[in-house]
Write a structure and sequence with these properties.
Layout lengths: L12 H8 L6 H14 L3 H14 L4 H8 L3 H14 L1 H4 L12 H13 L5 H12 L6 H10 L13
Helix pairs in contact: 2-3, 3-5
């Protein structure tokens, strides 16, 4: 006597897209999609993720990928898992950066102020931002970036060696 058990289950609509991706796309199509993604992506980390997944699809061993890309086995496995679950969206970085302290309009005003100033330096810019916008950056690099974006060029003075 043989028993046959039928399981009936359905995937909730909000999760169906996750499970449909890899079942409807051939291996060759996935490799081509990954190649296009690598070619178009501007982020090295996303490219490494896509390259790791592509190499695994091609049957390359974990150790060879580790040696070629300089990543860990965990990185490869996680990238592959995310790709299987969400397709190319799983490879894309989730972090998009924090919201800036200054709006584009405020930055334009600051650039005009810098270009009107005779002697604009980091100290003057710090005071101006604190007084007018109540903004104080933790790093000097943020001030340098504003000066670069305003097309003001400068060099730090060299200290005398006496």
């Amino acid at each position: 006597m043989q028993f046959v058990m039928k399981l009936n289950f359905s995937i909730p609509v909000k999760h169906q897209q996750k499970f449909q991706y890899t079942s409807h796309v051939t291996k060759t199509e996935r490799i081509n999609q990954l190649n296009d993604f690598i070619f178009k992506s501007q982020d090295v980390r996303e490219c490494k993720r896509a390259e790791a997944v592509k190499l695994r699809l091609l049957g390359i061993s974990y150790q060879e990928i580790v040696n070629k890309l300089g990543v860990s086995i965990g990185f490869i496995a996680k990238s592959q898992r995310q790709y299987t679950a969400r397709g190319l969206d799983g490879i894309k970085l989730q972090y998009k950066g924090s919201k800036g302290y200054l709006t584009p309009t405020q930055k334009a005003e600051i650039y005009r102020w810098i270009n009107r100033s005779i002697n604009c330096n980091v100290s003057a810019l710090k005071r101006y931002l604190k007084d007018n916008y109540n903004v104080v950056f933790k790093s000097k690099e943020s001030y340098y970036k504003i000066l670069r974006e305003s097309r003001v060029y400068w060099r730090q003075a060299k200290k005398d060696k006496r």
